[in-house]
């Protein structure tokens, strides 16, 4: 039982590390530009409330060693489910005003992805339509010589 608890705790710690790596970038994308700094501050406030409550939850181990694990596990799963309802920001223009923020993601379904998939023929036609100046940045460099000069 003790080794299973250690494994679960290490997996949870790994997941927390991953979430801290992306939370601020993702959170900033959800808020309009005019309110972004205030909203990130409010998110930080709630994060600090969670930091203050954590020692009290850990103290519940005196009643049962599984209570803190259950509370943290349920809260993590609940947070993961709630995040699935946030709008996808990939390939979307981010909201600049609060009105745009209210409409942001309304056309998306829950758990939808906005990744546009192209057929091979569409990609070929798009590349063929590019003129020489648009292709210049794509020139590959080999031994200091670009393929444009060859």
What is the structure about, briefly put?
By secondary structure, this protein is an all-alpha fold. The chain is built from six helices and two strands.
Please provide a written account of the structure.
With 150 residues, this protein is mostly helical. It has two domains: 102 residues; 33 residues, no CATH class. Helices cover 60% and strands 3% of the residues. The protein has six helices and two strands. It has a two-stranded antiparallel sheet. A hairpin with a 2-residue loop joins strand 1 and strand 2. The radius of gyration is 24 Å and the shape is elongated. The N and C termini lie far apart (67 Å). About 4% of the residues have low confidence.
Largest sheet: 2 strands, antiparallel
Overall mean pLDDT: 76
Give, in spatial order, the strands making up the sheet with the most strands: 1-2
Distance between the termini: 67 Å
The number of distinct helices, counting runs of at least 4 residues, comes to 6
Low-confidence stretches: 138-143
Number of domains: 2
Reading the helices and strands in chain order gives HHHHHHEE
* Rg from Cα: 24 Å
**What class do helices, strands and sheet pairing give?**
mainly alpha
What share of residues is helical?
55-70%
List the helices and strands and how they pair.
Elements: H1 2-30, H2 36-59, H3 67-83, H4 98-103, H5 120-129, H6 132-135, E1 141-142, E2 145-146
Antiparallel strand pairs: 1-2
Please give a handful of descriptors for the protein shown.
single chain, 150 residues, mainly alpha, 2 domains, two-stranded antiparallel ribbon, MFS_dom, Organic cation transporter protein-like, transmembrane, transmembrane helix, membrane
């Amino acid at each position: 039982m003790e080794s299973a608890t250690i494994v679960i705790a290490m997996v949870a710690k790994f997941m927390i590390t991953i979430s801290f790596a992306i939370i601020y970038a993702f959170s900033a994308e959800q808020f309009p530009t005019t309110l972004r700094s205030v909203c990130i501050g409010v998110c930080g406030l709630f994060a600090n409330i969670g930091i203050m409550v954590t020692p009290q939850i850990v103290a519940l181990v005196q009643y049962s060693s599984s209570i803190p694990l259950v509370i943290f596990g349920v809260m993590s799963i609940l947070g993961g489910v709630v995040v699935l309802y946030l709008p996808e920001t990939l390939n979307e223009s981010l909201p600049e005003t609060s009105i745009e923020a209210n409409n942001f993601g309304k056309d998306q379904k829950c758990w939808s992805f906005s990744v546009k998939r192209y057929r091979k023929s569409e990609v070929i036609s798009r590349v063929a339509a590019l003129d020489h100046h648009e292709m210049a940045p794509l020139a590959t460099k080999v031994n200091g010589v670009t393929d444009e000069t060859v």
